[in-house]
Structure of Glyoxalase:
Amino acid sequence: MNDRDTFLKNFRGQTIGSVNAQSSSDESFQNEVLRPILKLQNDLFTASFINYIEKNKTDFYSQTTEKKMSIIENAIQKDIKFRNVLKGMIIGLFTTDEYAEYKKNSSSLNKRMMSMLIERLKSQVKIMETNVNS
């Protein structure tokens, strides 16, 4: 393992969630790689989404909670440029071996990444409002 890979694994921290012999390869990748990266990059994802809604002049903060959740989903699912930026924030923290594993099943793993990221942003709507209002 090269210095970059060692650094990344140490920097990201431990596996989040359980991984055992019955875990699928996607589930193992999710818990060993994706969850620690999403946790590490959380503040950057939040700042990136706030910038996205400001740049797109979306009237996010005056919406109902339900509408805010919809805006988050639509931004990530339908805006391909924004989605690709978010994917890059995640993939950039893969080791070379993890990237090789990711390439084998990128479609399924991309769905997992974006689904997890959507849920993460939805859970932080109140925090986003507080940060903007302060």
